[in-house]
Amino acid sequence: MQSKVKLTKRQVKEDKFTTFMLTSKDKLQGEFEEKWQYYVIGLVVTVVAVWAVIWFFNQRSDRAVAAAEAYSKAMIAYQSGDNLNATLELNKVLSDYGGYDVAGNAALMLGNLNLSNRSYDEALRHYRIYLDDYGGPLFNRAAAQAGIATVQEDQAQHAEAAASFVKAAEMYPDGPLRPDYELGAIRNYLAGGEIDKADARLAILKDEYANSDWTNRAIRMIAEKKQSG
């Protein structure tokens, strides 16, 4: 009889994280695969939270601590599903602590929350605040640019959306979401009738992600568009 193997707390956490990532990937390729950006929001929020913690331990002034505490309060509201109070607290962080990097995290989260609520003008405003006024990791910057692209796509601004997706892809070319951004660009080029530009982005997918699901989906999308005339 085999003895039971007792997992450590760390192994349990790692297993849960692996399960979460695999489940998220399945969702992206399922029923809502063409609107993957809304699933990505959760992942971006997690990255932003980690970035805030790192920032906190590198800043020791009283005001920096107050900024981190305010942001933490907003995160607690968000994690509990209270998006209204999360939005209020994040706006407070942005207005009261605008000179600190944590305010950039607040701006990005406000963009994500407004995007999920289809409050497009506010989403655009906060994504642009993040990109124009703050630094941050390339993953978050590319995600903010893709958020702008999603707003434009939802408003049928396909030429603008395609350009924004390309910008997001090129902003972080080695990022894990690069092929999703390329697929977003292709989708919008096709919606705008710019098949040649869609073919150009497909060539990138074929070169860097040969035989991947993204490439195969792009091939099908372009073929269907060409067949439909």
Write up what this structure looks like.
- This protein has 229 residues and is mainly alpha-helical.
- It contains 11 helices and no strands.
- Helix 6 runs antiparallel to helix 7 (138-154).
- It is elongated.
- The chain starts with 8 loop residues before the first helix and ends with a helix.
Report the end-to-end length measured between terminal Cα atoms. 66 Å
Q: What is the 3D shape?
A: elongated
Overall pLDDT confidence: 82
Question: Rg to the nearest angstrom?
Answer: 20 Å
Structure annotation, total helices? 11
Model regions low in confidence, pLDDT < 50 over at least 5 residues: 1-32
Number of strands: 0
Approximate strand percentage: under 5%
Q: How would a textbook summarize the main sheet?
A: none
H/E element string? HHHHHHHHHHH
Structural features:
mainly alpha, single chain, disordered N terminus
Question: Helices and strands in order, then pairings?
Answer:
Elements: H1 9-28, H2 37-58, H3 62-79, H4 83-96, H5 101-116, H6 120-133, H7 138-154, H8 158-171, H9 178-191, H10 195-208, H11 213-228
Helix pairs in contact: 2-3, 2-5, 2-7, 3-4, 4-5, 5-6, 5-7, 6-7, 7-8, 8-9, 9-10, 9-11, 10-11
Describe the structure concisely:
The chain is built from 11 helices and no strands.
